[in-house]
Amino acid sequence: MKKNELILDEMGSKEIVFCVSNMIIGFGILTLPNTIVRTTVSSDGWISILLGGGIAILIAIIIGKLIERFPGKNVHAIMSEVFNRTFAHFFSLCFALYYFLFVSYQIRSVSTITKLYLFDNTPEEFLGFTFLLVLAYGVAGSSIALVRMNVLFFPIVISVLSLLLLFNIGGFNVHRLLPMFKSDFTGIMKATKETTFSYLGVEIMLFYNIYVLKKQKVVSSMVRGILLPILFYFVTFIFVVVIFGTLVVENTLYPLAELAKEVEVPGEIFERFEFFFFVIWLISLFCTNVMALDVTLIAIGAVFQRLKKTTLLVILLPSIFIAGLLPSSIKELRIFSSWISYLGIIIAWILPALILLVIKLKEGMKHE
Amino acid sequence: MNRWFILLLLLPLLLFTAGCWDQIEIEQRGFVVGTALDKGEDGKIIVTFQLVLPTLMQSSSGTKAEGGEPYINTSSEAKTVFKAARLLASEVSRTPYIAHNQMIIVSDELASSEHLGELLDLFIRDPESRRASNIMVAQGKARDILEVKTDMETLPVQYILSTHNNPEKSEAITPPINIGDLHQMLLSNSSYALPKVSRVKENKISTAGASVFNGKDHKFIGHLTEDETTGRNMIQGTVKTASLELEIEGKDLVVEIHEFHRRIKVKTDQRGLPLFEITVGANGSIGESEFDEMLTIKEMNNEIKRKTEEKIKSYMEQVIEVSQKQFQSDFLGFNNKLYEQNYDLWNTYRDDWDRGENIYSQCKVTIDVKLSLKTIGTIMESK
Amino acid sequence: MDKSSTEQLLSTDLHKNLEALNDMLHDASDLTTKVFLVGGSNYKVAVMSIEGLADQLLVKKQVINPIQHNEKLYVDSLRDPMQALHEIENRMISLQIPTRSNSLIELHGFLLSGQAILLLEGVAEALIIHSQDGPARSIEEPQTEALVRGPRIGFTESIATNISLLRRQIKEAGLVIKPYTVGKRSKQALCLLYIKDITNSKLVAEVERRLQSINLDYIPESGTIEQWIEDSSISPFPQILNTERPDKVSAALLQGKVAIMLDGTPFVLILPFTYISLIHSPEDYYERWFIGSLIRLLRFVAVTFTLFLPALYIAILSFHPSMIPFKLVFSIAAAREGVPFPAVIEAVLMEVTLELLREAGIRLPKPIGQTIGIVGGLVIGDAAVQAGIVSPVMVIIVALTAISSFAIPSYSAGIAFRMLRFVTMIAASFLGLYGIVMVFVMICMHLIRLQSFGVPYLAPIAPSFKKDWLDMFIRAPVSVLTSRPSFMKTKDKYRTKKR
């Protein structure tokens, strides 16, 4: 039966904001305070968070301006128009590689954390496998459904996270914010590198631009989409430092989870708020990963146009799973993750910036 | 070809039949509500778990269950806590489940010979354990504390907990410390004090007092008396209300403090060492008096005020003396204040604070107390 | 004209015609034929109708009597039988004569719809006389959709009655009622209803296209049409609403929706349908907005309970007992002592028992049916607890779940949730809370992808239409609800008159 659309498949500004925000808030929020505190003193990490956010906003503006010029086309089509097809193919494949590794890393981390906090004996691989299956189900339909999922889930995620922070106000010890501004410059820079990594995700709009049909203010929506995670990282960081103190934060792998453990639900309806928090956080991670997987499929599909989606899925899924299992220790996992982040920054942030530059130059030359 | 392919894809779903690894029925779990750690022979540790018998806990019909106590205390001995817990698991028919563990009691004897962090590592590290479990140090055998029988509460652990959770009512009780807080204290190098519990009678315990731990090796070094604990609470600012007994002209008078705030300022003295200035502000009223006339009390207002301020000051001075001279450990939190207010100075002395050169013992502390005395109760005379 | 077997037309010979029609109906016993003479002449007339479908009394009074007792018109004087027929039609019969026909197949169809046919000797054409009537149920309140406050009328099986009920509510000329005939053999009457100035024409076009694709012999109930034309029959969630209440239908029509009525069933279809309508009931609009909002929220809680409560029970009890508050955990553990089955089996057992009870309760006659519900629930549950097969907590959970599922206004959706509940229970038994989350995510994804005639199932949540939130989980005061749902893309956006 032919689909008759009363409602068009398109993204409005609200969809863009939620999409970008949800994509960014993923795994990073759990480990971020830990990595920042290692190189800064006391609460100065907030500087790094804001600095990293500034860089991310810059990138968002660049990417936004790029895709604003080509409504309804994803970056592969844009590249084909501006340069040539081979370059577009190359770019898409690199992008697909980046997101491929991204998803496998995330699946691995999700299974690790879930096993750690929710289970005891269940093997990690099984948890990751289940997650992968549900991802596959998600990707099997149209992409606009995934965007709408963000609109559905993001408010819930944000409210639960806010609840988490609210419940913890009791332990707020302002004194722990002191002393201030004692860290040295290199420390802050190192931490900024980490925070910048955790803002990766805004590049998702490069591909979801196919749904931005009307000419609209993409840039402002994207910037707004980044502001929310910045605010969130900031508040979470302050809370974590203020409640635990930097010493503990340095030694806890997942400070946000510990924060969730601290919560004592008023009325004692249930203990262990962290389960509730984990449920919501799993949903947010799912949204992030399903979009990443979808973009991988789109990117590869743009290059190999005759490949059927199902075949591609069958090849990709086991590979992702196995790739995720390759790192064998926490140290290796961290190296893995920093490689992925570097790759992401180069391909998804720097390259589009260069492309915009080239476009602007070309236009400049035309006018002369 | 297609059908076989799909079948192949579906095969992994068989994994689901392999079972639910973590499914343990709730009635098969042995709920541990209290833990006690004692010193055994040959450097071994005796671990005692207080397990609840849920069926005997039923108070649905209102009558007390016949058949005995709704809990049992079982012990086992091994070199590490983890091992001892596992031994226990092999002796008890249920899987010990520490997710509802309300408290951990360590005996002072054990705490003085072992690093506290090593002792409690299992509880801090295991995600199953409850972050909000309280820690206390027992004077004497920790196991005895778990055995206190009382009529008011069903479980000894509940009794201990509720007694302990009265810091608003008594100034000599150290505020509860849980595993989360302990983790912080273990990671820092400062000394600290944990709540103390001791068995007073067959069915009574007392939670007044504190047990001091040195930050260097996290070992127990001594107990604080009630007065010293009061002083410590005052310095740390955790006192909510207090009642002070005074003697004026041979008669007893009790002043009740309603509000208590303190500020600590860090300055530097001539020697280049930190100088701590404590400013205390308090609001109080007369709680109980042996005096005959109200008039007398009115005249004596200034005297009462002065004596109360002195009393508060003496509490604090007493405990500072103890911490600087007797224990030579800063369990009063001065280190933190230095870190917050004068980072560079803290950095200079961080390795020698209460070890090595013992800079802390050489620091001077000045105390200034201001009390405002208000009402005198609801009656004019009581005789 | 001769009767030719391939063309199946009437002949001028009355008796041949009667024979032919009788043959077509295989000598049906309820086919009544009255042959008589036109009063004052020698013309033979035959009136045929099917007893039970045509109103015999009406036919007698308004057709047979006037013709038989005709004295005014001298029919014999008319030389042409065609003219005679003409006169009979115009001057003697007081009933409506919609058309004439000479095709046997058509006549046979008319007879079976309840019309009466009049044959005149010498004319190869028959008059079709509108005389439909038949036994019909009186109008009573629908059983499954009773309200505390609201009109106590429900649709009946006769499509004419239903249309009249609706016309009484919406006295607007723009109310379009398009008739169709569906079912190759059953030739049932079906009507498509919408309001011309409001409903989006693309929607109407799509509905018509799908209706025309129906290719069945017989359509027993509107449910068959529902499954035929909805977007996805695989989904457990209904994409078309069915209701017995005229007020629901008129409210929907005014929102820009389309209704389908089928002769023979009181259940009228309303489409498109979104998830939010699952928890809407007309009563929300009849009471104050505050109460309406609160009750809607309550229903939302009911939906959550009915889907997830048993699964949560299994997950928390077997996998994460650390979540249970300290004071409660012992009573639950004590309650489960002695129960031989793991929590999963216990839950599945009780749920299946409840479903059995429910099924049984539907088929039993009214008085016994009520008792079985209560007796079954209480007694069996209690006995099971005493026997130590299930724990009391489980009984409470199951009872709560069952009550919640009854709180959902739409029966079809309630069934969907009942089935999904088992899926979540199984997921919970494998992977605890994680399993529940995964199933929840899958259900959400499915709902997001689902569409009902072009409208996303989860509108106005995703995609998000802020204006429609006033009528979603809460019900804003009447003065605020001035616009129609924007996801319907209606032509006329406002309910109120522009001042």
Structure, explained:
The complex is a heterotrimer of chains A (368), B (383) and C (499). Chain A has 368 residues and is an all-alpha fold. Chain A has a single domain, classed as Amino acid/polyamine transporter I. Chain A has 15 helices and no strands. In chain B, 40% of the residues are buried. In chain B, the strands form two sheets. In chain B, strands 1, 2, 3, 4, 5, 6, 7, 8, 9 and 10 form a ten-stranded mixed sheet that branches. Chain B has a four-stranded mixed sheet with strand order 11-12-13-14, sandwiched between helices. With 383 residues, chain B is α/β, with parallel strands linked by helices. Chain B is 32% helix and 30% strand. In chain C, α10 (289-318) crosses α15. Chain C is elongated and about 105 Å long. Chain C is built from 15 helices and twelve strands. In chain C, the strands form three sheets. Chain C has a five-stranded antiparallel sheet, sandwiched between helices. The relative contact order of chain C is 0.09. Chains in contact: A-B, A-C, B-C. Chains A and B meet through α11 and α12 of A and α9 and α13 of B.
Annotation keywords:
heterotrimer; A: 368 residues; mainly alpha; Amino acid/polyamine transporter I; 0% strand; C: 499 residues; alpha+beta; five-stranded antiparallel sheet; 15 helices; 12 strands; elongated; disordered N terminus
Topology:
The complex is a heterotrimer of chains A (368), B (383) and C (499).
Chain A: H1 13-24, H2 28-39, H3 45-68, H4 75-82, H5 85-118, H6 124-139, H7 143-167, H8 185-198, H9 205-208, H10 218-244, H11 246-251, H12 255-262, H13 273-303, H14 309-325, H15 330-367
Helix pairs in contact in A: 1-7, 1-10, 2-8, 3-8, 3-10, 3-15, 4-5, 5-6, 5-13, 5-14, 5-15, 6-13, 6-14, 7-13, 12-13
Chain B: H1 2-10, E1 29-39, E2 45-52, H2 54-57, E3 71-78, H3 81-91, E4 95-97, E5 103-107, H4 108-113, H5 116-119, H6 121-125, E6 134-138, H7 142-146, H8 156-164, H9 179-187, E7 192-201, E8 204-206, E9 210-213, E10 220-224, H10 226-236, E11 242-248, E12 251-268, E13 274-289, H11 294-299, H12 301-326, H13 334-341, H14 343-349, H15 359-362, E14 364-373
Parallel strand pairs in B: 1-4, 1-5, 5-6, 6-7, 13-14
Antiparallel strand pairs in B: 1-2, 2-3, 7-8, 7-9, 9-10, 11-12, 12-13
Helix pairs in contact in B: 10-12, 13-14
Chain C: H1 14-24, E1 31-37, E2 44-50, H2 56-68, H3 81-92, E3 99-101, H4 104-113, E4 116-120, E5 126-129, H5 159-169, E6 175-182, E7 188-195, H6 201-212, H7 222-229, E8 241-243, H8 246-254, E9 258-262, E10 268-271, H9 283-286, H10 289-318, H11 326-336, H12 343-363, H13 366-387, H14 392-406, H15 411-449, E11 451-452, E12 455-456
Antiparallel strand pairs in C: 1-2, 2-4, 3-5, 4-5, 6-7, 7-9, 8-10, 9-10, 11-12
Helix pairs in contact in C: 5-8, 10-14, 10-15, 12-13, 12-14, 12-15
